[in-house]
Amino acid sequence: MARDTTDFRPIEGVDELVEHLAEGNKARDKWRIGTEHEKFPFYVDGNAPVPYGGERGIRAILEGMQSKLGWDPIMDDGRIIGLVEPTGQGAISLEPGGQFELSGAPLETIHQTCREGNAHLAQVREIAEPMGIRFLGLGGSPKWSLAETPKMPKSRYEIMTRYMPKVGTKGLDMMYRTCTIQVNLDFESEADMRRKMQVSLKLQPLSTALFANSPFTESRPNGLQSWRGDIWRDTDNQRSGLLEFCFSPDFGFADYVEWALDVPMYFVIRDGRYHDMTHVTFRQFMAGAARNEVPDGLPTMGDWANHLSTLFPDVRLKRFLEMRGADGGPWRRICALPAFWVGLLYDEAALDAAEALTASWTYEETLAMRNAVPELGISAPFRNTTLREIARDVLAISRTGLKNRGKKNRDGYDETSFLNTLDEVVARGTTSAEEMLSAYHTRWGGSIEPVFMEYAY
């Protein structure tokens, strides 16, 4: 998230929190596609991580991008930590370990998403390459230890860094050593949100498998195809994972609110200062738990919006739905991830088909699939088949959905071509991670250094 929210309206009751989510309902002609992607900056000389400060640091990249784009700076305690397009159409932010993120504008087509990604990568290369910096498209940092990974000067990350070791074994790895591609999608009603949430929760492990792209840790194979997927199994299980209550046939906004109310907070912002709130849940906050701890210690709608942004389930509900299962990857994956989900969720016939395919899938089965995917990828078993075979059916549905949308570029091509990179995974029967591992054991000669050339932007 590029910028934390400031909305000083007081919260009068839980109904307002439910209404906040319901305000996301949009007519179909207003549905948009918001794509986010992260990448690891590194120095070409030595494949070393890039710190925040210095003439060749991340701050310098942000300042160069600000000069080039004219976007507004996002400041934290006097330091630039991001940029936002003046009308809210996109933002650049930093993840804790310096991962450089584009949060794209809400766009109508995957063609526009791909052009946006192309333009961003060209712009950031123009600024970074004279500094000897490039960017790596993987789901997990392949070389640097936690101690070697830089820390960005962002107040919320200081709070999270202190808190994460208290609630899981892999939270710091999540923060500092992973990258993702995400897409944010709209819904028209509570019922539509429910359908999309349930279908996408069930299919999120398949997304992790298809995009598995993090097989190395600290210069060695880690025994996994998606290290990032494994990290999310023990980051902070109070606020992340597969949400069983969302599988209920009458799941709605109020259910998500009730869950979110009982998750510990991270922070509140008062007068530009972040206050650590990890010792209370939002429900306790509403009951007055911080009344004497922070200035104006009563909850606001801005506090609620920020709290929702610190919850990390496989599919996150805000005033839209965030698909959170995929590893970061090379350029083609940036376009493929939104195409995959838009094809499934933005066409009624495709959503019907995806819902029918997954209707009998239970929470327990989906959880077992989620647990198997980090190691096995598309070879993970499901019932009497594998995810590779499930992927054939799901990609066919997504392709039909994209074809039905009929969104063509100036050359007359629709959005289906953006699925080609995923079709290749299924046709080969091997993920990107497995391809990298094969190269490591053969032409890379047991070294991960070539990954910085072959998977760099």
From TrEMBL:
Keyword Glycoprotein in annotation: no
Biochemical pathway: Sulfur metabolism; glutathione biosynthesis; glutathione from L-cysteine and L-glutamate: step 1/2
Keyword Kinase: no
Catalytic activities: L-cysteine + L-glutamate + ATP = gamma-L-glutamyl-L-cysteine + ADP + phosphate + H(+)
Record-linked Pfam families: GCS2
EC number of this enzyme: 6.3.2.2
GO molecular function annotation: glutamate-cysteine ligase activity
Secretion signal, residue range per the UniProt entry: none
SUPFAM superfamilies attached to this UniProt entry: Glutamine synthetase/guanido kinase (SSF55931)
InterPro entries: GCL_bact_plant, GCS2, Gln_synth/guanido_kin_cat_dom, Glut_cys_lig_pln_type
Alphabetized UniProt keyword annotations: ATP-binding, Disulfide bond, Glutathione biosynthesis, Ligase, Nucleotide-binding, Transit peptide
Subunit structure: Homodimer or monomer when oxidized or reduced, respectively.
Known role: Catalyzes the synthesis of gamma-glutamylcysteine (gamma-GC).
Family: Belongs to the glutamate--cysteine ligase type 2 family. EgtA subfamily. Belongs to the carboxylate-amine ligase family. Glutamate--cysteine ligase type 2 subfamily.
Protein name: Glutamate--cysteine ligase
Organism: Mesorhizobium opportunistum
